[in-house]
Design brief:
Length: 217
């Protein structure tokens, strides 16, 4: 798609600072396409208002509008944008041998990593193996570390949208002590933090968070 989008096709992100939607904002920054941001003050409960519940009944961010398409869930937005803007080089094409591993890591994040980390954060035992979506927390973490030992990125030498998703996630979870800072993860997070788009998103989120704090005061 051309970078010169019509108004009907313009990308619009529903965003709240320092949330999962920061990852979606990062995808947009990396792609470099024009976009608009509709900011929700979650501290004021705007995500529970009727206007936003009509967008996402879950009351969660991110959500992305593109013409008549509405996409929610961080990984789905990443997949959508990476395929919508192939020139950005963030997704192996269908038929590329790396396409399967790429999809694996995009889905593994939501299906295994997040449930395992949430259970660990809540001090909950893993469900019985026959019912657990992730098996064991330790298995999830070792799987991630083993992959990162094979190269700087999840697809080895190739950077992809999966690394934007995981880089953001591992930055937050190690910061809050939910994931151990192994040498592999520490180096991976450092590579993620060095990307210029990460700094731009952090600065924008800091400014928005300050505005929300001032409004609350």
């Amino acid at each position: 798609m051309s970078q010169d989008q019509s108004s009907a096709d313009r990308l619009t992100l529903y965003h709240s600072p320092n949330t999962r939607s920061s990852g979606a904002l990062l995808f947009l920054e990396e792609i470099g396409a024009p976009y608009d941001v509709l900011v929700l003050n979650m501290k004021a409960g705007e995500q529970r208002g009727a206007a936003y519940l009509a967008v996402n009944p879950m009351g969660k961010v991110p959500a992305l509008r593109h013409g008549d398409a509405l996409v929610t869930e961080q990984a789905a937005i990443a997949l959508y944008l990476a395929d919508l803007f192939p020139a950005a080089g963030l997704a192996p094409a269908i038929g590329d041998p790396l396409r399967g591993p790429y999809l694996r890591w995009m889905v593994y994040y939501g299906n295994c990593f997040e449930p395992a980390v949430v259970d660990r954060a809540r001090n909950l035992d893993a469900p019985p193996l026959a019912m657990s979506p992730y098996g064991r927390y330790e298995t999830v973490m070792e799987t991630v570390n083993a992959q990162l030992r094979q190269g700087p990125y999840l697809l080895g030498e190739r950077f992809s949208a999966a690394d934007l998703l995981w880089g953001m996630a591992l930055s937050w979870t190690t910061q809050f002590g939910l994931v151990p800072q192994t040498p592999e993860i520490k180096a991976y997070v450092a590579r993620h933090a060095a990307r210029p788009a990460v700094a731009r998103v952090a600065a924008r989120d800091a400014a928005l968070a300050a505005e929300h704090a001032a409004a609350a005061g």
